[in-house]
Amino acid sequence: MSLSVELPLAGGGLEEYTLKGGPVYPSTSPPARSRAVYAAAHVVARERGDPSRGSPPALDWDRTLAFRHHLWDLGLGVAEAMDTAQRGMGLDWPLAAELVRRTGAEARSRGGALVAGAQTDHLAAGTTVTVDRIRASYLEQCEAIEATGARVVLMASRELCRVSKGPEDYAKVYGPVLCQLREPAILHWLGEMFDPELRGYWGSENYAEASTCLLGIIADNVRRVDGVKLSLLDQAKEVDLRRRLPPGVRMYTGDDFDYPTTIAGDGFRHSDALLGAFDFAAPAAAWSLQALDAGDTNEFARRLAPTLPLSRHVFSAPTSYYKTGVVFLSYLNGHQPHFLMVGGMETGRSLAHLAQCFRLADTAGLLPDPQLAVARMRQLLALAGS
Questions:
Q1: What is the pTM of this model?
Q2: Would you say residue 104 lies in a domain?
Q3: In total, how many domains does the chain have?
Q4: Residue 189's domain is classified under what CATH number?
Q5: Could you tell me which residues are beta bridge partners of residue 107?
Q6: Residue 335 near residue 210, CB atoms below 8 Å
Q7: pLDDT of 52-88, one tens digit each?
Q8: Which helix (H) or strand (E) holds 136?
Q9: Mode of pairing for the β-strands spanning 77-80 and 37-40
């Protein structure tokens, strides 16, 4: 089979693209010693389920769980039921709870690192609720997550953002929730580029005011907070907040635009990682972290650099549709037999966007079976009439 394919261009027309092939990565790796690293994992929709928006979601459990084992094989932890898994965009709480339960059982069977997202998405969207009800809703999900053995990531709540009258309401929710958890939690600041309904989270649209609210909650509960996952796609804000965190509280980078430099650090502090980009870049991440464990920051950055153009493309605006690129790459690499998503979100990106994903994944060495990738790209193009 020729390793070339005619790909659509963003401005129209086609080009004959011949695969170049990038670095070859190991298929297994020990866990990193120098950083805590989690990949926010996607879910595999059931092929014969109804993928249309508004229909009850259904997952292919075998392939969804097999992908988690792929991440553990590479030494990465799994961040379960996060936005990469379409939380709030097709994955409802009952299915998320089942996902965490099943992944928790797999993690225990092999000692895999696992955290999982708790929020308040079982509340009917836009209903009139009180801060007390939101707090109780968080605790309900946290209890279910901790029962599986997973550590809690307190994700942002659309309902809290909607009803909050200011920073004091966030303290009324987060403080009591943190006090009732068995283990320190990770707090998640998810920016509006990922979810427009979270605009003004932490009580203000102003970064300085919002970060002051978050830091106040951490200061009041410092022994109950493992770290903060920051997903603002703004390196300057991440470095600023990282420097202001109390000793022992981690910064988990969610900066899918600049993760090599945030993870490497600035000589004063570094970021750990909880990234959707490490779903598709897991082999490169694992190989790069080996260099970091050996104390070679420059080699770490060199190894990981080829993945960055791909990540920036996958997470380009509208960023909330990055999951489409993640699942597309999983399909190209044989982790699932189809390019279907919960809620029909496979239609969220253009064919030209996906073609560029293909090119950049090839350059980054993230198409380990080029013949399979070419065959599946051709199949997708044929179905689209290209």
A1: 0.96
A2: yes
A3: 1
A4: 3.20.20.70
A5: none
A6: no
A7: 555 668 999 999 999 999 999 999 999 999 999 999 9
A8: helix 131-146
A9: parallel
